[in-house]
Amino acid sequence: MFFERPESGERAILVHIDFYSESEPESPRELEELALSAGADPVAFLTGSRSDPSPKFFLGKGKVAELAEMVRLYEAELVIFNHSLSPAQERNLEREIQCRVLDRTGLILDIFAQRARTHEGKLQVELAQLEHMSTRLVRGWTHLERQKGGIGLRGPGETQLETDRRLLRVRLKSILKRLDKVRKQRDQGRRARVRASVPTVSLVGYTNAGKSTLFNSLTASDVYAADQLFATLDPTLRKIQLDDAGAAILADTVGFIRHLPHKLVEAFRATLQETCEATLLLHVIDSYDEERQLHIEQVNDVLTEIGADDVPTLLVYNKVDLLEQVEPRIDRDDEGVPIRVWLSAQTGAGTDLLLQAINERLSDDVFESELKLTPSEGQFRAQLYAANAILSESVDDEGQMHLKVRIQRKDFRQLLSRLQIPFERYLSETVDYV
Prior knowledge:
This protein is an alpha/beta fold.
């Protein structure tokens, strides 16, 4: 049950009001980008300021009259508010200005409906849309009353509105059941990766920060990437190979935005679970954006809301090719641990540094040593080769093999356990590290 959209862009008037009581006002520029991403054709911008929203129209009477005049002047088909409106405010405004009204939440939902490609993504968007629409059904059915008196005119005893609400509840129940199945399938995939000790690296960040472009650069994939808000909606997973940490899963996820509608956060809980259970988060930041610090805070707020604020994070400052006198580099803390990487996903400059930083963050517990094996321990040697853990090998006059080994400590412990070799033989404090 997606919104119907015309083939060409709708002529839209954008409305942004500053409220004195707002601590984090919305961005007018971001509203325009959202409207363009949805396929609208903004023809005018109405701005103003108030102490508080009007309960009836959200705007004052003077602004409502001004908006109605703009609708007639520009022959607008749609009015988009950069705020959340109540169903009553939407209905009152539409009746007053004789034009369709859409609030910020409805606009984001429409963009998501256009971007959804997978079955799961479409279900999640539809769930959020139906929950948003459930309180707005009344305006479409006020003329269809099915309760009538008289012989032969008695209907089923419910209005068309009540019928629609009942059907909507049935559909919501069906979607929730199917999404629950999707969640279980995702959980099984995550458990399998945990059993195989494969770390997951999840890309997060403000929408249009360049996550998908970076994802394509790191994995040689062709995920859809565009200079528009919410170009990526469906999560994509790809395997990457790191020097020391071995194989890892890189996940590209939906971008965040300030005041992301709670309905969307709930609907995309299954998708965002990949972020919550990741081994490492790559917080991609548009370094060229003037509001980058505000966007960082907004992303951190969403991470807190979904319970991912305690996952280790590496900051990735993207688009350095647009900055003057800034070269790709790795910033480290006092202990030498990578905390920030500066790069350009578009040109590829610095992506090798990012892989190096990811490798360091994931391989902070590496077993590196020289092992001496007898000819009878050939199976152990073969397993080390299979794990790609042997750096070099030599044989002495007595036929003993000297192996220089580098492997993740947890993988080495699993290997020893499989072969029933006591841990103390190699993982004691007396081992000489190279």
